[in-house]
């Protein structure tokens, strides 16, 4: 797959932990997903996925409980789910997912982040076809062969199983997210280094050294936007 998920997650978690923005983003996402269905993860699969992701980012229980209580209450806050597709320097591809209560503000901020950093917004569908929605779940303490055996015993279909650094990462279809986790939990594994439903690029691009900083700045600006929940791209970063 070519993505070092632990490295990416640690970099983002460290960055977001300094600003607490990750907590605000999760709080908003949990509220929206809980509001769309039942505020109970056992009956709301989408909510269960978000809560599993929140655990891997160490989101405080108080943040989660507050968002769930808000969804159970009479809050009339409404958020639109938006997806922007665009191009960065040298034809790099970027997808931006947002939750917003002000579409015009979000559109303006996302467009500015692209335009000021060598990129431009594209039309709907101009980039997404080059990405696949994928369940990505990682654990430590097992080998890839052992994880494969666990998945086979549980009759869970996966796309790939890769050892990355000290973790084993399972890539699967989105609808297999819960099945993969259940297979691990049945084997006594309840801690995950990553648990994501994400968009993975089908091919990756390596940017020249003189262009990469501009691209990284664009991604940082996008991720810092209050309304932006997720940013996906096809640029391959060198391991540090």
TrEMBL record:
Q: Where in the cell is it found?
A: Cytoplasm
User: What GO CC annotations are associated with the protein?
Assistant: cytosol
Family annotation (Gene3D superfamilies): 1.10.10.200, 3.30.70.980
Q: Which InterPro entries match?
A: Integrase-like_N, TACO1_YebC-like_2nd/3rd_dom, TACO1_YebC_N, Transcrip_reg_TACO1-like, Transcrip_reg_TACO1-like_dom3, Transcrip_reg_TACO1_YeeN, YebC-like
Main localization is: cytoplasm
- Record key words, sorted: Cytoplasm, DNA-binding, Transcription, Transcription regulation
Instruction: Quote the SUPFAM superfamilies the UniProt record gives.
Output: YebC-like
What is a biological process (GO) this protein takes part in? regulation of DNA-templated transcription
In what residue span(s) does the TACO1/YebC-like second and third domain sit? Answer: 79-235
Domain named TACO1/YebC-like N-terminal: which ranges? 3-73
Instruction: Specify whether tRNA processing is a keyword of the entry.
Output: no
- Pfam families annotated for this entry? TACO1_YebC_N, Transcrip_reg
Per the record, the domain of life is Bacteria
Name any one GO molecular function: DNA binding
Q: Which family does it belong to?
A: Belongs to the TACO1 family. YeeN subfamily.
What's the name of the protein?
Answer: Probable transcriptional regulatory protein J34TS1_18910
The upper taxonomy is: Bacteria, Bacillati, Bacillota, Bacilli, Bacillales
Q: Which gene encodes it?
A: yeeI
């Amino acid at each position: 797959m070519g993505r070092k998920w632990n490295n990416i997650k640690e970099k983002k978690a460290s960055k977001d932990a300094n600003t607490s923005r990750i907590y605000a983003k999760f709080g908003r996402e949990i509220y929206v997903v809980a509001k769309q269905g039942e505020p109970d993860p056992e009956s709301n699969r989408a909510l269960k996925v978000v809560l599993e992701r929140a655990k891997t980012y160490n989101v405080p229980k108080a943040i989660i409980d507050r968002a769930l209580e808000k969804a159970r209450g009479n809050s009339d806050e409404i958020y639109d789910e938006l997806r922007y597709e665009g191009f960065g320097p040298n034809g790099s591809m970027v997808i931006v997912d947002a939750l917003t209560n002000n579409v015009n503000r979000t559109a303006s901020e996302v467009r500015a982040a692209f335009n000021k950093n060598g990129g431009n917004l594209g039309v709907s569908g101009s980039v997404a076809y080059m990405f696949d929605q994928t369940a990505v779940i990682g654990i430590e303490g097992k080998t890839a062969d052992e994880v494969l055996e666990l998945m086979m015993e549980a009759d869970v279909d996966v796309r790939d199983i890769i050892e990355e650094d000290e973790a084993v990462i399972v890539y699967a279809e989105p609808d297999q997210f819960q099945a993969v986790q259940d297979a691990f939990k049945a084997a006594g594994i309840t801690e995950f280094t990553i648990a994501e439903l994400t968009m993975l690029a089908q091919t990756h691009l390596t940017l020249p050294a003189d262009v990469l900083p501009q691209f990284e700045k664009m991604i940082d600006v996008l991720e810092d936007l209050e309304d932006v929940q997720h940013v996906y791209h096809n640029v391959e970063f060198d391991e540090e």
